[in-house]
From TrEMBL:
Key word Zinc present: no
Keywords: Glycosidase, Hydrolase, Signal
Source species of the chain: Pseudarcicella hirudinis
Stored SUPFAM superfamilies: (Trans)glycosidases (SSF51445), Glycosyl hydrolase domain (SSF51011)
GO BP terms: carbohydrate metabolic process
Listed name of the protein: Xylan 1,4-beta-xylosidase
Catalytic site: 216
Signal peptide: 1-25
InterPro entries: GH, GH39_cat, Glyco_hydro_39, Glycosyl_Hydrolase_39
């Protein structure tokens, strides 16, 4: 019998070859492409559509010790510069026992151990390095309270895992995932951490953070029951508030609200917040300042090509919003989608997971543009308060170039998806209307995903002196396709002339991956090659800025937008 690992490797290589052949067909199809699908996109600056809150300026990752490594610091600096408002960062394993060495899906701070008599020993050095890196850049932590220190775990052994791509994913859920053997000791650790944070960074700074308990407790990350999670939440929330009553505490960070078992966990938690008996105080309910859950898509390889499933991710988001909206006393609370991504495993590389081949190129960037725009619409339709949507993607230190992890940069070089966030950061704060006469709205994508015609659509905003329109050409299937011939009509322009800046992400622009392939996909790069890739990875203007004459309050811009391409038009007056 052939070992399963060998079969996985063989099937991965076959699927990878299919993707290469499909990419060749895509290139040939584009070379022969002379016709264009025509789409008219109409924006009206005179019709405001609420605030364009920076829900995109939230990021997270599994490996906290990457934070203060060379490429981690570089990327965090870039992320901090994307937004006019502070960028929030969420990381796992902040209370895990260990030596602080980074590994895939692993991290540690050694913040809590015990002496031979069982007395607590607190060591803040590593956690301070992590949070100092954020604070120095003006970033804000989503301080994740977890996972369980070895000395407090009710089942500590085995504790450290050594997972690598291709291993059984369930192997990661070791002693750190279990409830505490002493809830009060855990609560004391939390209180000490909050007080230490105040002492180091000041009360005002810590009041601006978000404190949350655990990660995805409805699956293997939590080896206890729903009731044990709720008990731990009561102890944790009480500990946080006892030190800083104005601190913001939230949960439950379940994943997949549209799954029946997840919805049950979610509602059991929310019921407790409203009417349950508090395990610490004996009173009714528990404090909750914001609500968290996760939403993921589900890509596959179909006939040799990657097929995304944005609909699944939007269903999860919509169900999460529906659950929150069903609690009248909690409906107003801010919602943070703690992880919001095309699929679930950032550390699962393309080599063994060919469905993840979308990650290096423009499919990830166009998916991001199209999906974030619909998150605003879903929240508005449910009448809930969406504060942020965490992109669970960062960087993987010292890994092969463009290995197909779900990351924003590779070895310090920005990937195309990062440029979408740069585009978002350039958009003003007041959302304006995009006419609803296009192929897809949020409801159709939620129900059908994008399996028929392409999703050519836009997100637009303005302030007193600027307007911006992001336009994308997205499809779930990464197959050869015609460019979209787009006529962008912008009405309600309050000036006689505007200066137009046109930024583009496509195969030729803002794309380090294509530049790397043109180099021959080298494994080892010279300093000059790295510098060239760094330049190629930045957001690029498609052409020089130009002045346009406004006629009767309107400008019309025509362009050809390749499949999976994204354009940002910025108008100044």
């Amino acid at each position: 019998m052939i070992p399963k690992k060998i079969l996985r490797n063989v099937s991965g290589k076959i699927a990878g070859l299919s993707l290469i052949l499909c990419a060749m067909a895509f290139s040939e199809g584009n070379a022969q492409n002379t016709e264009h699908e025509k789409v008219s996109v109409q924006v009206d600056l005179s019709k405001e559509n609420g605030k364009l809150n920076p829900i995109w300026s939230w990021f997270g990752y599994d490996e906290p010790n990457y934070t203060y490594m060379k490429d981690g610091k570089k990327l965090l600096t870039e992320l901090s510069q994307l937004s006019k408002t502070p960028v929030y960062v969420r990381v796992h394993s902040l209370l895990v026992t260990g030596d602080g060495k980074a590994a895939l899906k692993w991290g540690s701070t050694n913040v809590y151990t015990e002496d031979q008599n069982g007395n607590p020993v607190y060591d803040w050095k590593i956690i301070d390095k992590i949070f100092d890196t954020f604070i120095e850049r003006g970033m804000k932590p989503i301080a994740q309270i977890g996972f369980m220190p070895e000395a407090l775990s009710s089942k500590p052994q085995p504790y450290r895992h050594f997972w690598k791509p291709g291993d059984n994913y369930n192997d990661i859920y070791t002693g750190w995932a279990y409830p505490p053997k002493d809830y009060q000791k855990f609560a004391t650790l939390v209180a000490k951490w909050v007080q230490h944070s105040i002492d180091r960074y000041g009360k005002k700074e810590v009041e601006s953070w978000y404190w949350e308990l655990w990660n995805e407790p409805n699956i293997g990350y939590w080896k206890g029951t729903v009731e044990e999670y709720i008990k731990l939440y009561d102890y944790t929330a009480h500990a946080v508030k006892s030190v800083l009553p104005t601190a913001k505490i939230g949960g439950p960070e379940v994943t997949g609200p549209a799954w029946n078992v997840s919805e049950k966990f979610f509602r059991t938690f929310m019921d407790h917040i409203v009417s349950g008996k508090n395990a610490v105080t004996g009173q009714t309910g528990a404090p909750l300042d914001f609500v968290t859950f996760h939403a993921k898509g589900d890509p596959k390889v179909v006939n040799g090509a990657v097929q995304m499933n944005m609909g699944k991710q939007l269903k999860d988001i919509d169900k999460g919003f529906e659950i929150v909206a069903s609690y009248p006393t909690l409906k107003h609370l801010p919602i943070i989608i703690g992880e919001s991504d095309p699929e679930g495993c950032a550390a699962c590389s393309e080599e063994l997971n060919p469905q993840n081949a979308y990650r290096n190129g423009t499919m990830y960037s166009s998916y991001t543009a199209a999906s974030f725009a619909r998150k605003y619409d879903l929240a508005k339709s449910r009448g809930v308060n969406l504060l942020g949507a965490v992109t669970w993607a960062f960087e993987f230190e010292d890994q092969p170039w463009f290995a197909g992890f779900r990351d924003l940069a590779t070895n310090g070089v920005d990937k195309p998806v990062l440029n979408v966030f740069r585009m978002f950061g350039m958009m003003p704060e007041n959302r304006v209307e995009v006419h609803k006469n296009l192929a897809y709205d949020f409801a159709r994508i939620r129900d059908e995903s994008v399996r028929k015609e392409a999703d050519v659509n836009a997100l637009a905003s303005k302030n007193a002196k600027t307007a911006a329109v992001m336009v994308w050409n997205y499809h779930d299937d990464n197959l050869p396709a015609k460019d979209a011939s787009v006529d962008l009509e912008i009405k309600g322009v309050p000036a006689k002339k505007v200066r137009l800046f046109h930024y583009r992400i496509d195969k030729e622009n803002s794309n380090s991956y294509e530049a790397w392939k043109k180099m021959g996909s080298p494994k080892d790069l010279s300093p000059d090659q790295i510098a060239a890739l760094e330049k190629a990875g930045k957001l690029r203007l498609l052409n020089d800025p130009e002045w346009l004459t406004v006629k009767k309050g309107k400008v019309v811009i025509s362009m050809n937008l390749p499949r999976q391409g994204v354009s940002l038009f910025k108008l100044n007056w």
